[in-house]
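Appendix B.2, paired examples.
Example (i):
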Amino acid sequence: MYSSRFERNMGQTITSRLPEDIAKDLDKISAIEQLDKSSIVRRLLKKAIDDWYLDYALKLFQEGKISLGEAKDLSKLTLWAFLEKLHERKIPLHYDVEEYDADLQTLQELAGK
């Protein structure tokens, strides 16, 4: 059964009216997963929010508004997972001379330790 930190630490109650087709889909998923509808809604909402953060991070990175590290942090993914998402969506890395110099300096500092 699905369990997460999010479900164990429930806080605020939010109510919402749903279109009939979505309510029926929730009933179906609830029956398949053998979970109550509230758990299903929390799981799907968490996934949708995570997806939104990823899309937003990719958009800002592609527009050059944030760095790779900032985009990775915003997306809540590891660096490798974020790089994979860039590859999947054919978003090129912006890697300029300043970033190269900063990385080179970091490597030299690490090698000196």
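Example (ii):
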Amino acid sequence: MKTSAFFLSLAALGLLAGCTTSQVTWSKVGVTQEQGRKDLDQCAAEAGLMTREAEGKLETGALLGRAEKDAAFERCMTGKGYRRG
């Protein structure tokens, strides 16, 4: 079932950090609810598993800061065509 615009709401920092703080809404015209949920889950997983090199060491998502995870999640969602707001 296609919708004219699909909206995903989540506790922005809560999804990645385990606590509920503020609400962020993501939307994308023409996406199904099923695909929207799949994209949201994929971006959340990628942000949690993101790695970076720091001081010659490779760090996994568990060691990354909350702001870095949130930024990775936002990059993923916008990269899939979703708009925040």
